[in-house]
Amino acid sequence: xxxxxxxxxxxxxxxxxxxxxxxxxxxxxxxxxxxxxxxxxxxxxxxxxxxxxxxxxxxxxxxxxxxxxxxxxxxxxxxxxxxxxxxxxxxxxxxxxxxxxxxxxxxxxxxxxxxxxxxxxxxxxxxxxxxxxxxxxxxxxxxxxxxxxxxxxxxxxxxxxxxxxxxxxxxxxxxxxxxxxxxxxxxxxxxxxxxxxxxxxxxxxxxxxxxxxxxxxxxxxxxxxxxxxxxxxxxxxxxxxxxxxxxxxxxxxxxxxxxxxxxxxxxxxxxxxxxxxxxxxxxxxxxxxxxxxxxxxxxxxxxxxxx
Length: 307
What we know:
Blueprint: H1 8-16, E1 19-23, H2 29-32, E2 43-48, E3 62-65, H3 68-78, H4 81-104, H5 118-129, E4 134-137, H6 141-149, E5 158-160, H7 169-179, E6 191-196, H8 197-201, H9 207-213, E7 217-223, H10 238-244, E8 248-252, H11 258-267, E9 272-277, E10 298-300, E11 305-306
Parallel strand pairs: 1-2, 2-3, 4-5, 4-6, 6-7, 7-9, 8-9
Antiparallel strand pairs: 10-11
Helix pairs in contact: 1-4, 5-6, 5-11
């Protein structure tokens, strides 16, 4: 992932690239930051089926209005084995350089035993599901952590955001659970809504649908009792709320109980809500501040540590 909360090495690669082939992208501000500084060394080839997207935000040097699939098929035909081998040899130092940056600036989070940090809870969920679950989210910090720390193994296993709408996580999880319930010729899939307390409250009434339809929907609720991008404090009892809808629920506070609690959530037949109490203040890092460029990326701490 690149952009505002993307990895250092992905953003470095874009910043230093001399050619950027952009397939069906819109160069939104969460990816580009300061537009004039984004991929400023690169010639940009923009392939998109929607003419309105081409050069809308970032000017393309080569514009191709077409479907991505046949465009890639044409490009593949132009690359012979000898050309591919030559390219591989010439870019080997560049690949090694990006790998060096990746090793120097790995993804990391605070290693604490006194609390459950949200990144840890998501990492444990990934380990316990082997990265094979369908994950949905609402909008907020939990969404960014889910993007960073769940080890997705297959395409189309990540349903997030709904055009930036808080509350998207639970309803979209219901749809996924209905589609992958083991019927209709599809294999049964574990479906988990990784949500935040503020976003979850936006559509909490859909727990009634979960109960009525007995959809096998799990909710990993990362509760910091706060809207991470706002100033309002929130203190409902989510466990009691879930149980009032007939949905099994549990709260976990201690780190050494987190894995067993996640296992209980996954092993319990039918819907289940696991409320994980996480620190009130925890930053989503790395971070390129809004309107800034790669050179301003914050990698850890309070912003004192930059690339």
